[in-house]
Amino acid sequence: MNNLSDNLPPRAGENHRGNPDRYFHVMTEGWFIYTREGVHGPFVDRNLAHSFLQNHITDIKPDDDPSSSWRL
Q: Which parts of the sequence are annotated with region: Disordered (predicted)?
């Protein structure tokens, strides 16, 4: 069963569930990540790729930066 609400962005106050399609594995190369800026990798395992992504998101815009809102 395909739940269309799984593809919607979270509402205000809800946690972001992430995008499982963001990660992909290439045999003999490693794990890679899709971001708005392009593809990053390779990483030895998916956990390292996820850690990089969390740091990347945090480094892009600080939470207290009002320009980080997509609604502006």
A: 1-21
